[in-house]
Amino acid sequence: MLNTDCPSNKACIRNKCQDPCPGTCGQNADCQVVNHAPSCTCRIGYTGNPFQYCSPIPQAVEVEQPPGNPCVPSPCGPNSQCREVNGQAVCSCLPTFIGSPPGCRPECTVSSECAQHLACVNQKCVDPCPGTCGQKAQCRVLNHSPVCSCPPGYTGDPFRRCDPIPPAPTPTPVVDIDPCIPSPCGPYSECRRIGNSPSCSCIQGYFGSPPNCRPECTINSECPSNLACIREKCRDPCPGSCGANAQCSVFNHVPVCTCIEGYIGDPFSSCYPKPPPPPEPVADDPCNPSPCGPNAQCRDGVCTCLPEYQGDPYVGCRPECVINSECPRNRACIRNKCQDPCPGTCGENAICDVVNHVPVCSCPPGMTGNAFIACRTAPAPVVTNPCNPSPCGSNSQCREVNGVAVCSCIPGFIGNPPSCRPECVSNSECPLNEACINQKCKDPCPGTCGIGARCSVVNHNPICSCPTRYNGDPFVRCTPIRKY
């Protein structure tokens, strides 16, 4: 379906005519739909980036501004920049934003604003295919969503890896042949025998029709705006995203952290109580009080983001990423940076590919073994047993049933042969409130903090602190504060 199939106040989202506003605009912003596209504006008395966060307009403080600088304060509005030309303020939209000041806006907020073969990823209309499908799989875009499939002559999980279909074994006379061995149903499906015919259905949590069962999501735009695509499920990206004394809201799939009322600081690490008001500002100091948002610095009344932060410095700067879906699909969000998750992940002689933010290890042709430990030269094939050599790939087991090799992942590994893998190999594959410990997503808090201390997990890391009215070293012991 297209947007034009819907009323002008609706957009075509996941093949349904829906209101595109929920979860699109930031706090204290209002949304209205104009010709299928959501338009965000700050409410009266608020200012900032309406697609992220609008803050109350501070009361005007009469401060003598440096003469001859029409850009302080900036008259250009959010997502714009101001340049002084011949004593006049000249406004233009920041790079990657479109429109005209003061109405600069992202290229897109929902996929329906993009061409059918593109999707809205991180507010850009881009091809959703690169990095989405597995090795040797092919990808096509259908109504903004990437669809992965194995090419002719190949089989396997197209979201992980496709392998050549092995030649059919020499048939042996058998009394009864199970039509579900091997399964004709494709990945993410189950086969039930009804009489002498196979009956295929998608396994729980997967959608579509066999052999094209697929996960709930592969990119953010396949989820509601208040959820993000995390490990192929539409989930709330907030748990573990924000620091102490901060609150989290989700706008357009991205977690936005803000300090609670009465607190200031970096909401992505920790907020602290707001100090008492400073003395009266010096008349010629445009940075006192500072007009800048969190994680920004002020110089001569002009705000810029701190190093390693980005965004609108007058509203608030944020790290490069908080969750994987804010990075290109061949990168993962590691320590708030979009990085290659491969280095140090795979074993000796193994090759690593990044598929949808996740490192996938495999042994090269002619080698076998656990690709997460080491690959070794494959032994010469023995044709008498369909499981020797095993066609199942790493971390799998092979059983011979009616002269046919039947593959399954060994306990403790997930996926489908030949792409069996541990639950995780890096923190970025786990929810933000868990860490990858011994290839399992677990709570990193137990045994970390001292006696009487509390532990919270922020972006996979355990943070120890003493409770209110306690002090001490939270990694050793917290004791009550004595009143004398």
Task: Give the structure's gist in a few sentences.
This protein is an all-beta fold and 484 residues long. The protein has no helices and 44 strands. The strands form 22 sheets. It has a two-stranded antiparallel ribbon.
Give the helix level as a range of percent: under 10%
Number of strands: 44
Main beta sheet: strand number and arrangement?
A: 2 strands, antiparallel
Q: Helical stretch count?
A: 0
Low-confidence stretches: 60-66
Going by helix content, strand content and strand pairing, the class is mainly beta
Q: Give the rounded overall mean pLDDT.
A: 82
What does this protein look like?
The protein has about 475 residues and is mainly β. Among the domains are: about 5-60 and about 70-120, no CATH class; about 245-335, no CATH class; about 340-440, no CATH class; about 445-480. About 0% of the residues lie in helices and about 40% in strands. The chain is built from no helices and 44 strands. A two-stranded antiparallel sheet has the order 1-2. A hairpin with a 3-residue loop joins strand 33 and strand 34 (about 375). It is globular and about 90 Å long. The relative contact order is 0.09. The model is unreliable at about 60-65 (pLDDT under 50).
